[in-house]
Amino acid sequence: MKKSILSLLIVCVGLNGLTAQNTTSYPFQDPSKSVDEHVADLVSRLTLEEKALQMMHEAPAVPRLGIEAYSWWNEALHGVARTGRATVFPQNIGLAATFDQSLIRRIGDAVSDEAWAKYNIAQQLNNHTLYSGITFYAPNINIFRDPRWGRGQETFGEDPYLTASMGVAYVKGMQGDNPKYLKTATCAKHYVVHSGPEALRHSFNAEIPMHDFYETYTPAFESLVKDGKMESVMCAYNRTFGKPCCASSFLLQDLLRKQWGFNGYITTDCWAVSDFVSHGAAQNTMESAVLAVKSGVNLCCGDEFKTLPEAVKQNMISEKEIDQALSVLLRTRFKLGLFDPINENPYSKINESVIGCQKHIDLAYEAAAKSLVLLQNNNNTLPLKKNLKTLYVVGPYAANQDVLLGNYNGVSDRMTTVLQAVVGKVSAGTSVGYRIGVEPSADVKNNMNSAVGEAQSADAVIAVFGISGVFEGEEGESIASDTRGDRTNLGLPQNQLDFLRKMKKSCNKPIILVLTGGSPICTEELKSIADAIIFVWYPGQEGGRAVADAIFGDLNPSGRLPITFPKSAEQLPPFEEYSMTGRTYRYMTQEPLFPFGFGLSYTQFQYDNLKLSADKIKKGKSLTLTADIANVGAKEGEEVVQLYLTNLKKNITTPLYALKGIKRINLKAGEKQQLSFEITPEMMTQINEKGEKVMESTDFKVSVGGCNPSDLSKKLGASDMVSTVFTVK
Fold first, then answer.
1. Is 628 a catalytic residue?
2. How does DSSP classify residue 222?
3. Within 13 A of 390's CA, how many CA atoms are on the CB side?
4. Catalytic pick from 472, 475, 486, 639?
5. pTM for this one?
6. Does 472 qualify as catalytic in the annotation?
7. pLDDT, tens digit (0-9, with 9 covering 90-100), for 545-571
8. What is the set of domains in the chain, with CATH numbers?
9. Which of 93, 125, 297, 472 could form a disulfide with 292 if both were Cys (CB 3.0 to 4.6 A apart)?
10. How far apart are CA 137 and CA 82, in angstroms?
11. C-alpha distances in Å from residue 511, one per residue of 137, 533, 581, 676
């Protein structure tokens, strides 16, 4: 009698993931039992058909067991996405430009708070539709190996170390540190060597030197498994080494699970299983579904797994194999507490008040502020004074909210454009003019363009140009791209460049060029057109405020480029080649337009007194580096201190230099501080041509400063780096 009363009470108070139709208590509903006991009991109660359906992204309800429908497919790349109101943080490439791991972790924590608030409300509305859950297809940790890739904006840039450190921080923030409950489930995508071209993503075969595979393409995934303890991995559409990524036992079993120790669930990219036939790996959908499960997939984003029951009947796969795959998947739902009484799970108490709260607004502003990269500031044009007599704002993105968002984004009821923020920043007595000047992609057909003439009378011009999601993005979403979202021409759109040329010719006043975009804009002529250039990415809901504050000196820009800006696409290897030769700052020998790690400040920093704890060490030992950094300018500012290593003997293929450490230092004018780095054996490990990790007897050059150690960095105004050499015996 007591047991039945307890069962009814549990149903009445409400269960996450359980329906009120069930009045019977099962062991999988008992919060006192272990996750393994929960999983085993639930799997034993499902029919074969129910098991197959639970392994698809839209898992239906099982009313007889009191199980609600659940959507595994949800997005949170830089804020809860595609499901209404949420705080919109800068796009990932902008977050990477902050070089700030602690900030990214705090953002992950904020996003997961909003995710739970929205989930709790959705449950009350009986809303179990797409994008309503707390398992997310984020972060994207593919390497932005080629700036033409339209989805590079979703990544943390071109460097494996930066990508790994940002990705791990986001995962830790999203998944929380509760000893019993997983806060949300993150998913590292797209595994692996998935970085364009978009038009070929369902068909290309990535053949990569093993050195590049293990040195560039896989380290971030390995770090998220070992350091981030991420819950899920998404296998990509393409083939790698001849096999579809979602049908590769080498990728999914040998490398991911056996070598790296991954124990979470593997999901396909959406409808990737359907591509197996065109890849030549299977004859039909049923064979494809069987191949995916046998290769290690647990969840099908798509509907191909509905064929599995018939495959069992035809002895193509056993029900035991399906049970094993489903058991891995269900562990996550139990770790999230989705079958526990609401009061058992602390996250079920998070309410609507956190969505877009002031704390998250401030965090979005901080992220935008730290992401802004000052590329040029001739004659200290910036910051401007707020009490200018006249100011002219022009450009297709000055009053545009779309460029705040990026892709895979949420929406906010608080969005401030650059124009709005600038008008709110200057003196009430300042005359501010504004015109769009030119459409983002359309030609100007009226030669009597008022904007060109009106700009002449202003004391300064703020020109907001660049690219947006119509030019770059995922296959099918970028309507101005004739290459399904990629950018084969990396320059500023021609019509925008033509307009800026005319304005420069007729206007002899300072031009501050604000560039938007998720990938490099490689038009060298812009350096002669503009007096100052700020690259702002897709800076999120608070991006307009941050840009205005930077222009008028209420914040000091401190962002750094997480990707090299080449002079043009002609400097790049063929897009379809996946070798790293000639790619990124690590292997590019030609001088680019702007180097990786570069960004200016309104103050100057000076490095000196570099010391090592030893100049000779044995293999497997660490050493400590110390150096002094001083703010020798007139303004307070933050410096992104970067540590790079170069193997001087180069007995094997190694990068020209490789980022191995990051510290953000805030210094007041005249302030000096000692900083330190530990140089670990892992940093000194090299990858040989077979893809093996080796420790060589060699000499390493270590460099520390505010950019990478290229000659171009200094030429463009970066502070001098300090460097020395140590020997590994």
1. no
2. H
3. 11
4. 472
5. 0.96
6. yes
7. 999 999 999 999 999 999 999 999 999
8. 2-85+114-149+169-208+216-354 (3.20.20.300), 358-563 (3.40.50.1700), 605-728 (2.60.40.10)
9. 297
10. 12
11. 41, 9, 38, 40
